[in-house]
Amino acid sequence: MGSVPGYDLAIVGGGMVGASLAAALAGTGLSLALIESLPPEAEGHTSFDTRTTALGNASRRILESLGIWGELAAQAAPIRAIHVSDAGRFGFARLAASEHGLEAFGYVVPNAQLGAALWGRLRNTPGLALHVPATITDLRVTAEGVSFDIQAGDSAPRPASARLMVGADGAHSQVRLAAGIGALIEDYGQVAVVANVASDAPHADQAFERFTPSGPLAVLPLADGGRTVVWAVPAAEAPALLALDEAGYLARLQQAFGWRAGRFTRAGRRAAYPLRLTRAREAVGVRSVLIGNAAQALHPVAGQGFNLGLRDAAMLAECVASALDPGAAEVLERFARWRAADRRGVTRFTDGLVRLFGDTRPGVAGLRDLGLLAFDLLPPAKAALARVSLGFAGPTPRLARGLPVRRA
Ligand SMILES: Cc1cc2nc3c(=O)[nH]c(=O)nc-3n(C[C@H](O)[C@H](O)[C@H](O)COP(=O)(O)OP(=O)(O)OC[C@H]3O[C@@H](n4cnc5c(N)ncnc54)[C@H](O)[C@@H]3O)c2cc1C
Hints:
The protein is of the alpha+beta class and 408 residues long. The protein has a domain at 6-76 and 109-185 and 276-358 and 395-401: FAD/NAD(P)-binding domain (3-Layer(bba) Sandwich). The protein has 11 helices and 20 strands. The strands form 3 sheets. Strands 5, 6, 12, 13, 14, 15, 16, 17 and 20 form a 9-stranded mixed sheet that branches. Strands 1, 2, 8, 9, 10, 11, 18 and 19 form an 8-stranded mixed sheet that branches. It has a 3-stranded antiparallel sheet with strand order 3-7-4. Helix 1 packs parallel to helix 4 (111-122). The chain is globular, with a radius of gyration of 21 Å. The two termini are 35 Å apart. Bound molecules: flavin-adenine dinucleotide. Residues 12-18, 35-38, 46-47, 51, 53-54, 135, 168-170, 174, 192, 194, 230, 273, 292-293, 300, 303-307, 309 line the site of flavin-adenine dinucleotide (FAD).
């Protein structure tokens, strides 16, 4: 095995979360490999496509600590107010960031921009071997480490080993499978249809979350003055919504959303994402750990998936940066313990929202009206939601507090 590279960490998947972990570990002295099957600018990339992502305040702070926020700031649209409503019902709630002493609840950033900023940082980082486009094969796990082959195109597989294998390879994680970790998968029976739109009213930094009979519909502000629409519809209705011409789609959107954002005038290309809740049964295995969508892939209703995954990455970086052996069981157990409450809380919150507002049983809509009205009137309930933008529960990663991953 003389010439086989032995890394401290092999990160499989360089999407939003895996690339963030690599950026967080750059300069720590750990030897890293990042194995990613698609270049970040590839058409149809799983992470860095035409979508936008709402980043909460903890995420902004982490990206600031990584020195990446500066590149994103000009493309980031602040969300200073959120309007939540239930279509056809009288209940609604309004939240203003200023009421909670926040400059904004979050910032909407194009995924492609995030990919360019993260990968720009990763190229030419000392101690980081980038294998892209490449995948791993023949993964073998022992108590001392993992060995595997790196397969790039048609070239011969190259053997390598690592003390820790990180699964950042998304909801269908190969690492999760290889580590023998099962997953609970629940199909929401919904598809998110995403499009950028223009309207004849300024967005005034306001986001809308509207619960319609077909599914939740979010309208978020963009830095160019436009808006992005994430509309979850029953899977059976998605093909028809995608097949509509621009005028037909705008009419359907207007009907479902109403006039709070003015008249919708233009829509860009629509893209579809089937929605499932995927939860790994364990956060860690022998010499292996799961982060981001590989650990939990959520419904996009509250825009929490990447925010949660970024806190995974920040906390894992902190746990391994000062460890003698980054893949030691006690290091992985500490990571799992520190992340448990945040992961559980955000997953339940997101799933609970989808189920509560999808419930058509008699009487439930009335209770929701009361809930939204009470929510609008009750400062503590609003404060709880505002806190989601900062991280749900459990220890806050050092990067989210503006500190370097490693203690001095
Ligand atoms: C419509 C929609 C809107 C969303 N909006 C928001 C939002 O506003 N805010 C928010 O926080 N979250 C949002 N999310 C969630 C967010 O997109 C995900 O949480 C995020 O993409 C997770 O990133 P990830 O890197 O863990 O996984 P992925 O994005 O799935 O990336 C996985 C990466 O691994 C690579 N890969 C996969 N298999 C292999 C392999 N075998 N070998 C090598 N590489 C591999 C893939 O090419 C990819 O680059 C949204 C999701 C959807 C569907």
